[in-house]
Amino acid sequence: MIDAAPDLPALAEKLEAWLEERREAHDALRRPREAFEERANAVRALQRELFDAGFARVGWPEALGGLGGSVLHRALVLDRLSRAGYPGRFLLEHLEILPPALAAHARPELTEELFLPTLRGDILWCQGFSEPSAGSDLAALRTRAEETREGFRIDGHKIWTSWAGWASHCLLLARTGAPEDRHRGLSAFVVELDTPGVTVSAIRQANGTDELAEVFFEDVQVPARNLVGPLNGGWAVAMHILAGERGSYAWLRQAHLLPVLARLAEQPAAAGGEQALGGALVRLLAVRCRAREVLEILARGEQPGPESSVSKILIMDAEQALYDTVQELLDADLALGSADSAWEWQEGYLYSRAASIYGGARQIQLNVIGKLMVRSGESVDSRVRGDEEAQQ
Ligand SMILES: Cc1cc2nc3c(=O)[nH]c(=O)nc-3n(C[C@H](O)[C@H](O)[C@H](O)COP(=O)(O)OP(=O)(O)OC[C@H]3O[C@@H](n4cnc5c(N)ncnc54)[C@H](O)[C@@H]3O)c2cc1C
Question: How much distance in Å is there from the Cα of 131 to the middle of ligand 1?
Answer without folding.
Answer: 10
